[in-house]
Amino acid sequence: MRVLGIETSCDETGVALYDSEQGLLADALYSQIALHAEFGGVVPELASRDHTRKLLPLIDQVLADAGLIKGDIDAIAYTAGPGLVGALMVGACTAHGMARALAVPILGVHHMEGHLLAPMLEPEAPDFPFVALLVSGGHTQLVDVRGLGDYRLLGESVDDAAGEAFDKVAKMLDLPYPGGPQVAALAEQGDSSRFRFPRPMTDRPGLDFSFSGLKTHTLTALRTLEQQAALDAQARADVARAFEDAVVDTLVIKCRRALEASGRQRLVVAGGVSANRRLRATLDAALAKRGARAYYPRGRFCTDNGAMIAYAGAQRLLAGQRSDTPQPRPRWPLAELTPPQP
Ligand code: ATP
Ligand code: MG
Ligand code: FE
């Protein structure tokens, strides 16, 4: 089954063609980063308008890249939620219009299920069951995954998502949006022994996270350095490193706990922050010690993309699942999903 995947939940327009027999045929991404940069974050109305401009040309581009025509599409999958309602609406209506015109089946996909299944596009795909750490701009969750659509929430952030904390710390450091990769790059120059920031909620049992206090701690550290006239380039890098180390350590401690609690040997890490190199290196080392293994998407499939939506949609479409009408769900808890049902 050849599935066209469409992602428009936030500030990237993602389109891909996935063939359930041949794998990924083509994928294209248009990021709106430059459009939102001057506002320091995503402006929902501008995002919707830009998706309407970019979506159809991207679909043409992906078809051309794959050497196919619209008539070769067997089914369509689009992100139905969670996300910005206007942005979701653009993808949903375009997808349903196309499906009607081509007379092919269509399905609205959960954006976080897309992230969660993204490592399945890699040559060494994880088998079920596994524990998933979903760590992105809007989510930090640990999920026990028994199979497709069989998800049990083990823990989540009680305040900011890890990616959101990276973005806010980037702002404090006057780094451009989105800040995750910028903070990570600055941290490379930092000395990890200069400051030690707290590892929130690791001193008590449980699998929930909190990153808002760490953000405040970082702000206080920067203000103190400023008052001491000591906020030079090296100090900024040292703060970035201390913040990154604290986030990474916290995530690793909770992942280890989740694997212990569930008895699983496989960990899937997905979402924008899973691109972070220090997180990957630290996790790999920690898991190797316990004979466990982590699986990640390739770099460009960590953040939002059409390939993960095409893949996740294909799994459910193949089982006969369909959507009747474009119904965006801006809020949609992952644990509400069920295995595919026709
Ligand atoms: P969600 O998927 O929860 O709806 P989203 O789609 O906005 O949110 P993603 O696109 O998956 O999130 O990820 C974007 C986030 O990942 C941003 O917060 C960004 O700063 C962060 N990020 C990207 N690369 C890195 C990195 N190398 N290190 C740390 N954070 C990163
Ligand atoms: Mg994004
Ligand atoms: Fe996302």
From TrEMBL:
Substrate binds at L134, V135, S136, G137, G138, D167, G180, N276. Binds 1 Fe(2+) ion per subunit. Its EC number is 2.3.1.234. Keywords: Acyltransferase, Cytoplasm, Iron, Metal-binding, Transferase, tRNA processing. Fe cation binds at H111, H115, D304. Residues 24-311 form the Gcp-like domain. Its cofactor is Fe(2+). It is an enzyme of class 2 (transferase). Signal peptide: none annotated. It catalyses: L-threonylcarbamoyladenylate + adenosine(37) in tRNA = N(6)-L-threonylcarbamoyladenosine(37) in tRNA + AMP + H(+). Its main location: cytoplasm. Pfam families: TsaD. It is found in: Cytoplasm. It comes from the Bacteria. The keyword Cytoplasm applies. Residues 320-342 are annotated as: Disordered. NCBIfam families: gcp_kae1 (TIGR00329), T6A_TsaD_YgjD (TIGR03723). HAMAP family: TsaD. Belongs to the KAE1 / TsaD family. Required for the formation of a threonylcarbamoyl group on adenosine at position 37 (t(6)A37) in tRNAs that read codons beginning with adenine. Is involved in the transfer of the threonylcarbamoyl moiety of threonylcarbamoyl-AMP (TC-AMP) to the N6 group of A37, together with TsaE and TsaB. TsaD likely plays a direct catalytic role in this reaction. This is tRNA N6-adenosine threonylcarbamoyltransferase. The lineage of its organism: Bacteria, Pseudomonadati, Pseudomonadota, Gammaproteobacteria, Oceanospirillales.
